[in-house]
Amino acid sequence: MATNDEILLKMAVSKMNIHRSTKLETIAAQSIVRNLDSFLDPQYSETRNLMLLPSALRNIVLQQWLMMKFAVLKKRTLSFDDSVKLFEKRINIIQSLVTCHTLQVDLTPFIIDSFNFLSRNHLLQYLYLIGDKATNLKVLIILEGDRNLRTLNTTLCNPIGKFRNLISLNLEYISIKYTNLKVMCKKLKCLTHLSTMLYFNPSFDESNEREIEELQIFSNLIFFQTGVHDEKFTINCIQHLPKLQSIDNCTTSIIEELLDRCPNQKFALTRMIFTAPSNKEIHLNFPDVNELEVRYCYSDDFFITPNSLLKFSKIENLILTDFPSVDTMIRLLDAYGHGLHSLRMLETGHALVFDRIERITLASKIW
Which InterPro entries match (predicted)? Predict the structure, then answer.
């Protein structure tokens, strides 16, 4: 029989409307964010002070502040004076919350704050401040959704290059010149995950031995999203980066040219996209592929799935795009259906039933 205390606890939890999986630290952090002004007020410094919070809790408060405070950005354009005041307040919060124990920072909210015309100008100062305090930062995210920051210039690359312990850098949707990227990443020796939109000026020259040697700047990369359709660059990355498991735009033509160059080399890629049929024994050179995407091509020779496409031994995730009928998919499903964790069928309008698959995604469009 439940005690009075247990009954009261259950009643309190039900009234608080707390999700069962929500941690008490998260609840505390959300409460602090809602009352953040009082934690910044000097008159409450002895009882409410962000600097006195445990470092782990400060990290959670920082994440909650970025998520909650900027979930709905201001709807009116700020005056210059208001923009300066907002910047000073944000600097104060960052100084109070960011420490050497801060492991992840997402600065996207500062970029998409389009009603604050100084938000982009202040990004550099945010980066330098965080760089000085978050000396062990592992993850930095700056996603540009509203095209306010189209190009990451040298001025912004310099402070990012000072995060020497960074493991993951996500600059998706932000263009960066290849020469600037090399200078920045030369300092980021721990980096394993990189997302950006590269552009070359001039184009990547694989006949230049120095260009090939400088690829070693990225030798620790496991995940590389380049956002560029440059086959020569992609081929050389796969060939010369021994730890690389995933790179975008890795298509059939790239794989075939790579095998012509290095027929006996084994590669670390775990994700592969087929956009055309191939009779090469690709699985022998790519033994670790566990995610396979096959995009149906409307040509006579793609109605028959090549046997080489059915020989990968570790496929867990299968993506089938634009297949016109179940019959054209059946060999792939027979080969890999028993071991799948995830099956995605895009641009298919067929009602199918599967057993023992953890997740199925059906979509009529690719976004």
Answer: LRR_dom_sf (IPR032675)
